[in-house]
Amino acid sequence: MNCRKIALEVYELANSGDALGLLVKEALDVIDEGLNTHGQDSVSISFNGGKDCTVLLHLFAGALARKNSTRPIPGIYIPVPSPFPALEEFIEESAKAYDLDLFHCRPPSEEVESVITPAQKNGTNYVDSRKPASHAVGKAKGAEGMRQALDIYKTRFPHISAILIGTRRTDPHGATLSHRNMTDNGWPSFERINPIINWSYSDVWSFLRKLSVPYCKLYDQGYTSLGSTFNTFPNPALLIDETSRSYLEPLPSGGSIISPGTALTSVMSTTHSVPPPPESELVSPTGILSKYITSTHVHPLGSNGHTTVSSTDEWSVPSLPLLRYKPAYELLDGNLERSGRGLTAGLRT
Fold it and tell me: What are the residue boundaries of the Phosphoadenosine phosphosulphate reductase domain, all occurrences included (predicted)?
């Protein structure tokens, strides 16, 4: 990355006077104030490869270049349990591109977010009706793991006194935050600086696309909010409606696709014939869908990402191709940003 070119672009956008430019100016002003307060060597950035911190890294690189800084950018990466390989690849690519001196800080508990939201049963948190959770992960939200990671970071880099974070107001726990907040009592002392706190989902994508900022390729596959492979799926609001296509109609790019409804109809026609098979071989519609979901999403305890059903699957139906999703930037309702999160019940033990 040519950080001087980035500085020219982001400050030109900030001075454009349009709605996005005003948000960019606000964010750059907050970054500049933080740098003036703490000094360039004492401000770090929290970077996990998501769209929000990608925006923030681009802005931070521009702000530092405008101050003629030539040193690597200090950063911290706190992994979630079972991160997507594609996301970690993007993190490494970004670190090289922006000269980001990224400290990988995995807390001892290896939990920095709630990968499930347990149901309540008799006042006890449960992953499901059979297996009790070891602790109230739905309430903890990974706070202890985050605190442990920041303790490690403060010990390793005591001169860092402020961390830039890509939190937005619509994020969990973001509603009451301001641009600058100190960590809570009992936590290692850092000022948390939130330059894009007032940005919306669409603002983030407008910025990334307007300035051609590289972002994680998972966002082009229908993911809108990235976390652990345990709890992150393509956003169902971005599923492409293929109901007008005939079953297994070839796509322009090769391959084929079917809609869930057509798939179910086809499966029913192959498992229920005339005369019907023996009762022991009948499959209910619920069972069909359950088996399809099981085949297309490997149980999180045994995977490091999602897989799809293969042509060698034991099912006695034609191989089921991938459903297609629009890219994240085509999501029209930002309130649905996290609709692809928390759709599975898996707990890392």
Answer: 43-232
